[in-house]
């Protein structure tokens, strides 16, 4: 069990901003050198476009950022690349801020969070870190081991439960919906504040598994008509533009209420957050409500799916709430 955890929580650690900077090292190195001792010219904009695309910002977000940057630089009479960097910082913060959301877990008891994702995204590990985060807020937590497909998933979640000193409801094999149903009943009996339900990793193209995760959602609703109160998708930052396909598929099947971006470990391309925000802002303006799943329960029509947490490492406190100002500061190294 101890082999799952590679770092000592008691070891001296850099601040969260420093860890975020380290996680965004690849993108920051691509962008940072463009703004030193240069005047504003077409070559600079061309290099900036190439850096944004290389950072997985995508064509739409890159085009938007460059057009907005040109407009603001012209209106402000910007002369140097340093002026341009300040403008880019402001534009990125404005673009990403709508993705922020504070989760209010005291609205229901137990407050039920269902977590989904593709294989290898870091879903089970993120659940363990979420348990630690909510405990830090004074909330009691119970974990439901609904991933009955991956051989080590149950053992991994139990190990996280032992580490955080939180109960885990699990069984060898069995129906995942039934396990999660039992976990919710156990949480009621023990007067637990929050239930976090793990589910098996699955690809959007695995229709039988997507139907199964829809069944899990229906079974949870039988315990509480308002539940699950949150449905979160875990995304691996290294998947880049493929993240959109995952968000679209899982949102269509479940009606997502939040995203968790993991593995910002220095090799990931942080520009994908701008791409996510831009796609959301486009959907907000168009009022798109065409998901196959139920409308998201807590958001207004067309509202973006929030980016709730970002993860930068393996330690238990390396998953933190997403804050646009922190992320952009780490991205541009101001």
Walk me through the topology.
Blueprint: H1 16-23, H2 25-32, H3 42-54, H4 58-76, H5 81-96, E1 111-117, H6 123-136, E2 141-146, H7 153-164, E3 168-169, H8 176-190, E4 194-199, H9 207-223, E5 230-236, H10 242-254, E6 258-262, H11 272-286, E7 307-311, E8 319-321, H12 324-332
Parallel strand pairs: 1-4, 1-5, 2-3, 2-4, 5-6, 6-7
Antiparallel strand pairs: 7-8
Helix content: 40-55%
H/I helix tally: 12
E-strand count: 8
Give the mean pLDDT.
86
Q: Hey, roughly how much beta strand do the residues contain?
A: 5-15%
The outline comes out as: elongated
Q: Gyration radius, to the nearest Å?
A: 21 Å
Name the strands of the widest sheet in spatial order: 3-2-4-1-5-6-7-8
Largest sheet, in brief, is: 8 strands, mixed
How far is the N terminus from the C terminus?
A: 40 Å
- Spans with pLDDT under 50 lasting ≥5 residues? 1-10, 283-301
* Structural class designation: alpha/beta
SSE order in H/E notation?
HHHHHEHEHEHEHEHEHEEH
Write a structural description.
This protein has 334 residues and is α/β, with parallel strands linked by helices. The chain has 12 helices and 8 strands. It has helices at residues 16-23, 25-32, 42-54, 58-76, 81-96, 123-136, 153-164, 176-190, 207-223, 242-254, 272-286, 324-332, and strands at residues 111-117, 141-146, 168-169, 194-199, 230-236, 258-262, 307-311, 319-321. An 8-stranded mixed beta sheet has the order 3-2-4-1-5-6-7-8, sandwiched between helices. The longest helix has 19 residues, at 58-76.
């Amino acid at each position: 069990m101890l082999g799952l955890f590679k770092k000592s929580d008691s070891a001296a650690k850099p601040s969260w901003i420093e860890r975020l900077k380290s996680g965004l090292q690849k993108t920051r190195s691509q962008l940072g050198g463009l703004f030193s001792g240069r005047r504003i010219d077409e070559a600079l904009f061309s290099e900036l476009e190439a850096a944004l695309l290389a950072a997985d910002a995508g064509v739409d977000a890159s085009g938007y950022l460059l057009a907005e940057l040109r407009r603001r630089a012209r209106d402000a009479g910007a002369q140097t690349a340093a002026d341009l960097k300040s403008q880019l910082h402001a534009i990125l913060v404005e673009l990403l801020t709508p993705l922020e959301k504070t989760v209010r877990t005291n609205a229901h008891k137990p407050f039920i969070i269902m977590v989904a994702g593709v294989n290898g995204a870091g879903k089970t590990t993120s659940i363990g870190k979420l348990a630690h985060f909510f405990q830090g807020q004074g909330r009691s937590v119970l974990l439901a081991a609904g991933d009955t497909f991956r051989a080590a998933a149950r053992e991994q979640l139990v190990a996280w439960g032992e580490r955080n000193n939180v109960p885990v409801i699990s069984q060898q094999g069995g129906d995942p919906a039934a396990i999660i149903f039992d976990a919710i009943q156990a949480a009621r009996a023990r007067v637990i504040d929050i239930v976090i339900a793990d589910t098996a990793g699955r690809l959007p193209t695995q229709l039988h598994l997507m139907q199964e995760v829809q069944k899990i959602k229906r079974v949870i609703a039988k315990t509480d008509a308002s539940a699950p109160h949150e449905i979160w998708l875990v995304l691996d930052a290294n998947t880049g533009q493929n993240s959109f396909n995952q968000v679209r598929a899982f949102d269509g099947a479940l009606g997502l209420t939040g995203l968790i971006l993991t593995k910002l470990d220095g090799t990931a391309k942080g520009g994908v957050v701008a791409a996510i925000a831009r796609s959301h802002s486009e959907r907000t303006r168009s009022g798109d409500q065409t998901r196959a799943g139920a409308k998201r329960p807590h958001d207004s029509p067309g509202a973006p799916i929030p980016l709730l947490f970002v993860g930068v490492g393996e330690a238990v406190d390396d998953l933190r709430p997403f804050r646009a100002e922190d992320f952009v500061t780490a991205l541009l190294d101001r």
